[in-house]
Amino acid sequence: MLARTPPSGLSAILVERDRPGLTIEPLPETMGCKGGQHGLLTFDDVRVPAVNLIGSEGDGEEHLERALEISRVFIAASSLGTAQRALDIALAHAKARVTFGKPLAERQAVQRYLAEMAMDVYALRHMLLDAARKWDAGQRIPLEASLCKLFGLEAVGRVTDRALLVQGGIGYTRRTPVERLYRDARLNWLEEGPPTVHYLVAARELAHGYAWDDAFG
Ligand SMILES: Cc1cc2nc3c(=O)[nH]c(=O)nc-3n(C[C@H](O)[C@H](O)[C@H](O)COP(=O)(O)OP(=O)(O)OC[C@H]3O[C@@H](n4cnc5c(N)ncnc54)[C@H](O)[C@@H]3O)c2cc1C
Question: DSSP state, 137?
Fold first, then answer.
């Protein structure tokens, strides 16, 4: 957790889940991503030993910014995985399903869906590779992380929509995993900040002179 530790600012502190004063109230059942556990944490006069301090007192904001930056890239990577799977399923279905004598994959209108899905997957993969390469080289990537997260949630939204369209009525049933991918993808809107936060972060970095020219290096 992050706690205010005046006068030094914010500090990152490890709190074991069985500490007296910490209560975890489970959240109601979610629309998707049912494998995860989410709860509302309440801290009431929780005491921890000094050894539970992560890093140094007052450097919590630095920890938070770094953790969020790479975590936003992870959320975008999860968007990519979901989008790729939705594309694979839609493509297999389009090749196998025959209507009026021809597979769906040979219908121009369905081809457009498939090409648009592939375009999103391809663009997101390359944005992520760029961000990950810079992070691995030790760079801070606040702008790239927010752009990946934003583009990722929009891309996986479009791709899972189109996968449903390609599958027709069967995609709306639980016979195929597409309805689950569609629901799971909607959590990517929220995790590590909703879109409005990322518009703000991205625009702020640009306005503050982010080294955009170097960003392509
Ligand atoms: C199942 C689940 C798992 C989650 N897991 C994580 C996780 O792992 N990590 C994590 O960080 N978060 C996680 N979250 C929380 C998520 O980050 C928040 O739900 C999200 O940030 C939105 O905050 P909120 O729910 O309080 O909505 P609110 O803050 O009430 O926002 C509601 C709407 O108003 C907009 N809004 C709110 N304040 C502003 C503002 N100041 N300026 C502009 N627009 C604004 C938001 O964009 C949103 O559209 C999870 C949420 C859920 C449901």
Answer: T
